[in-house]
Give the backbone structure.
Amino acid sequence: EVRGLALARGYLYAAQRTEGLAVYSLADPTRLELVAALDTPGEALRVAATSAVVYVADREKGLQIVQLFR
């Protein structure tokens, strides 16, 4: 269940409750490609992204900060 979405750097970041954070490439907008996933400690409820950092609001553990590398 997707609870929050964010766009940055050509990627879609999805907060997916118990599934954590999913990252999809938007290189071909007609076909989203899952390129990364991160299991958060609890339920991922919201997400915000910049060009260098993704912020995930986790119900049990609060704000999770993920630094992006390319």
User: Anything to note?
Assistant: The two ends are 28 Å apart (CA to CA). The first strand starts at residue 4 and ends at 8. The beta strands are 4-8, 11-15, 21-25, 33-38, 44-49, 53-58, 62-67.
